[in-house]
Amino acid sequence: MRRIVAVLPLLLLAVGCGGSKESGSHSTTRAETPEGFTVRHVRDEGFSIAVPTGWRSIDASTALTGSSAKQFERDNPAAAGAVEALARPNSPMKFVAIDPAGLEFATNVNVLVSRIPADASFERWTSAETAQIEALNPTHLTKGTVQLPAGKGFRLRYHARLTIRGTPRELAIHQYMLKRGPFLYVITFTTAATEESQLAKTFEKSARTFKLTS
To answer: Closest Cα to residue 212, out of 49, 68, 88, 81?
Structure first.
């Protein structure tokens, strides 16, 4: 069966994205990178994140080039929906990485960058983001603050039951959010609920490498 990656309705979290251009993702390794991870840079968006070395990634500027995006889709058919989302004009989605070793569902992470009021307090924007997720009627919802290299962040973990290509699936979603000025960065990891316990530490390690580089 062809593997799939769900593009969840989380674009609701990212309205009014800024208009800066993104450069391609470049792989590097650094001393502080967890073992088995590789750093991916999205330079013009000003962030980097480390993901497991075997994961394959693409960013928005690459998706907009056409030929590169088509090649990525051919190599990673599970990511077709994510590439489409990346390639939309002014899409808040800026980066996607997937685990090609998945069976029927491809574990993945995406990064959204959106504009919110620059003067929004931590309490205000985290309450707003939580309310939007609660409107999706999730289960197993937990929330709390988390310290990321770029500053104080917010974490939501929950399950969502979605029908994907006619098949009901329970997905586990771990989201890490960080605000810098008028920009909100949302890092979303998604996997099959049955795989959550095995991957939770991987998601946390990756999220804790997220850095703002400009």
So the answer is: 49
The residue whose two tokens read 């996997």 is 191
Q: How confident is the model at residue 168 (pLDDT cuts 50, 70, 90)?
A: confident
Estimate to the nearest angstrom the gap between the alpha carbon of 84 and the chain centroid. Answer: 15
d(CA 50, CA 41): 9
Q: What is the pTM of this model?
A: 0.83
pLDDT tens-digit readout, 28-37? 434 489 999 9
Other beta carbons within 10 angstroms of residue 172's beta carbon come to: 22
How far apart CA 163 and CA 192 sit, in angstroms, is 13
- Three-class secondary structure of residue 102 per DSSP: coil
Closest by CA to 4, choosing from 135, 98, 116, 93, is 98
Nearest to 45 by CA among 120, 107, 115: 115
Average pLDDT, the chain: 80
9-212: CATH topology: Protein Transport Mog1p; Chain A (3.40.1000)
